[in-house]
């Protein structure tokens, strides 16, 4: 019987087929600063040749650039390597590759990765699968790639990639510059760079209530694409220069608890948010809550009333995947919110809207408050929905100012 193994620096559990899940590479010293990169032995000659070497038999499949929710193009490669080629104990695979922008052919970026191979039987059948990733901006690029083992056998390849927005996406402002090359970053909750904001008297305040949960409510963990989408929604809001104050309430409907709160801050503290969210235990439900069919709607009712009744922000934004409750918030419990003086929005993250087109309990709350719901299925949806949200916030604030101004 053949078997398939996937390994990186440690053994992995499955093939990383999604570009956002490909293991990021290390940017070699000198690349980012334009300095000289020192390569060992024959590596430079291997990268310079256009011939594909197969001393170490492997199959390399390029991954075309895909635009992520973080508004960066993610590219990379997948490798298939026969297990018997790395059989034994203690082998090390070293990958070195360079990415060159067509607009800056004299300034390539070099990346490296080392894979420690676990012990493999000499008669092992099947393939090992590996993957790597990097980010690029719009543009054309050439990739020269090689992998060598401990005894200097080499597998090499090269290919071209193009990252481009579709004609309908041309107005989107990406988070990575045109022709730029960078490492893929899986540190979702790193600190956000400072933003130059409008003066407080000209800017807005928002409150964001985010349901941090996987797309599949019963899943035992967050998939990278889910984390990327939800964090990208927050980062998109945090980068808005017309917003000067943020209130963040992160909750989880499965555990029915508020996980993190940040009030009236001049920026979103992503490291603290990430640390708090790490305490969530996905896929586990308290038996007492499970036995009470109304516990979910009771929690949501209290959350909505607590956070919206005394809200002083210019807008309230719900965000997150659809929740699987069949029990809606009773309309009577929302009577005191019937005439809230601010707009309410719902950025609903839903990768498969065709399979789940029905409005969820949060959507029903937003509809009751005469708010606006947006379905976030792809990066373009995030961009267009946020543009519309800001347009409405600005317009409604202007109307309110004119209405209350002395005649």
What does this structure look like?
With 407 residues, this protein is of the alpha/beta class. The chain has seven helices and 16 strands. The protein has helices at residues 43-48, 224-238, 270-277, 287-291, 295-309, 361-368, 379-404; strands at 5-6, 26-27, 59-67, 73-82, 92-101, 109-116, 127-136, 139-148, 154-163, 181-183, 204-211, 243-252, 257-265, 315-321, 344-349, 372-376. The strands form three sheets. The chain has a six-stranded mixed beta sheet with strand order 13-12-11-14-15-16, with helices on both faces. Strands 1, 3, 4, 7 and 10 form a five-stranded mixed beta sheet that branches. Strands 2-6-5-8-9 form a five-stranded antiparallel beta sheet. The protein is globular, with a radius of gyration of 25 Å. The termini are far apart.
């Amino acid at each position: 019987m053949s078997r398939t193994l996937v390994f990186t620096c440690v053994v992995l559990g499955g093939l990383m087929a999604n570009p956002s899940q490909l293991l990021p590479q290390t940017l070699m010293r000198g690349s980012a600063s334009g300095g000289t990169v020192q390569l060992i032995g024959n590596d430079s000659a291997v990268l310079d040749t256009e011939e594909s070497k197969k001393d170490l038999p492997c199959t390399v499949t390029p991954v075309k650039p895909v635009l992520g929710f973080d508004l960066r193009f993610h590219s990379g490669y997948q490798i298939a390597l026969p297990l018997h080629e790395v059989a034994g104990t203690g082998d090390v695979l070293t990958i070195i590759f360079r990415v060159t922008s067509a607009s800056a052919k004299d300034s390539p970026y070099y990346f490296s990765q080392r894979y420690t191979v676990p012990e493999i039987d000499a008669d092992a059948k099947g393939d090992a699968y590996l993957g790597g990733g990097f980010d690029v901006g719009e543009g054309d690029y050439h990739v020269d790639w090689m992998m060598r083992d401990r005894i200097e056998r080499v597998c090499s390849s090269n290919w071209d990639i193009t990252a481009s927005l579709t004609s309908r996406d041309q107005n989107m402002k990406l988070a990575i510059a045109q022709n730029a090359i960078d490492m893929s970053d899986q540190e979702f909750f790193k600190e956000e760079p400072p933003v130059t904001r409008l003066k407080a008297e000209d800017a807005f305040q928002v409150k964001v209530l985010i349901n941090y949960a996987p797309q599949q409510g019963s899943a035992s963990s967050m998939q990278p694409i889910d984390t990327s989408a939800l964090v990208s929604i927050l980062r998109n809001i945090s980068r808005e220069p017309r917003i000067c104050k943020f209130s963040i309430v992160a909750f989880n409907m499965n555990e029915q608890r508020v996980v993190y709160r940040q009030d009236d801050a001049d920026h979103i503290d992503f490291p603290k948010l990430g640390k708090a969210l790490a305490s969530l235990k996905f896929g586990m439900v308290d038996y007492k809550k499970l036995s009470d069919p109304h516990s979910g709607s009771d929690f949501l009712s209290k959350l909505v009333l607590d956070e919206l009744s005394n809200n002083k922000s210019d807008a309230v934004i719900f965000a997150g995947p659809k929740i699987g409750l069949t029990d809606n918030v009773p309309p009577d419990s929302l009577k005191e919110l019937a005439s809230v003086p601010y707009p309410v929005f719902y950025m609903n993250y839903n990768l498969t809207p065709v399979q789940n087109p029905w409005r969820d309990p949060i959507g029903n709350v937003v509809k009751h408050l005469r708010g606006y719901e947006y379905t976030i299925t792809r990066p373009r949806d995030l961009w267009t929905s946020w543009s519309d949200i800001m347009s409405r916030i600005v317009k409604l604030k202007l109307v309110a100012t004119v209405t209350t101004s002395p005649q």
